[in-house]
Amino acid sequence: MGKISEVIPLHEERKYRFDTLSIHAAEQEDQNQALNSPIYMTSTFTFRDLQQAEDTFSFKRRAYVYTRGGNPTVNLFEQRLSTLEGGVDGVAFSSGMAAISSVVMSLTKSGDHVLAHRNLYGSTFGFLNNLLENYGVRTDFIDMTDLNRVEESILPDTRILYLETPTNPSLEIIDIAGISRMAHERGIKVVVDNTFATPVLQRPLELGADVVLHSVTKYISGHGDVVGGVATSRDFDYVQRLKFSYMCELGGVMSPFNAWLLIRGMKTLGLRMERHCSNASKIARFLKNHRGVEKVLYPELEEHPGHELAKQQMKGFGGIVSFELKGDRSMAEEFVKHLSLIKLAVSLGDAESLVEVPAMMTHRDYPEEKLHRFGFSGRTVRISAGLEHPEDLIQDIGESLDSVYE
Ligand SMILES: Cc1ncc(COP(=O)(O)O)c(C=O)c1O
User: Sites of the modification N6-(pyridoxal phosphate)lysine (predicted)?
Assistant: First the structure.
């Protein structure tokens, strides 16, 4: 499945495959020949004399100055991640939300309009729906799985089409290539949050998106010990502007220590995604046959409305499974109470499987009475399938469901 290319075109003679690049891209020989690149845990960099400082500040000399403007460990992370996404360079941020807010602000000004998919991570919805309005930028939320609806909703002052795919938490699939064609005919930029898929499963820049961003807190880290974000693009000038005029001036900078943890986590990204996907697939198929489950939202299932599209634009269906329980919303509460292995927590993409109830937790910014319009409900449960043995996960889920629906 999936047309995603195995070899990533680099600006180098030699072309390597994804799993090799996730370990080696942008590596440089260390002065002490250390295998792993050191952590440059420093806020500032020294100058030999004032002349050297002046040459640096007047761009006659290229050198690091201050970690908010650039740091070797952070740069290695940015370059490695952007290579995996097929971008020219990346900008690391202190969180996924810092990446999202900076990217949206870098592409809009007062009076502009953003068109976004109706189902997004809760704080992204909150930022676009509440905060951005204070700066004169309006957002409409529509169903972007319907390309006609997108076309009808574009306004003369629309500057961005913003989406996640698969979406959080409904796992809807949006046609990135179709959206990008429509946007580019009108000079509009397409921004894709690729957190759920990762570049292992989907590379939006290859499909035409202008900017790809991530909460690297999730699969890119993979170990639940980092909060961070990143954005990348094929447009070098844009990346420079995002780095120096937005990340640097708004100040959402990534710590070098976090960049180092991310570099370490990325080495196993391909391997981890295989296991996340196969565990999620087994969980989805188990849930589908349980009497307490009304509907399973997982794009691998043939009945999922985005199944065919996911097969085309992704290389696997991802590690997240959402499902609707039968009965009322108290069933979700009962279900999570009876789990013992799977932990009740926000976030996803960790080695540990996690469960949450979006309407009561991460997606509280959505108006409760209109939840169905956004593709989920108070009975929607989201599981991030970790790396544990699938039979242990299924046993935990099965025992919990059995005690709720006995
Ligand atoms: C799809 C998606 N995008 C963005 C974010 C925000 O990222 P962060 O928590 O790193 O700010 C999240 C967080 O859960 C997410 O799930």
Answer: 218
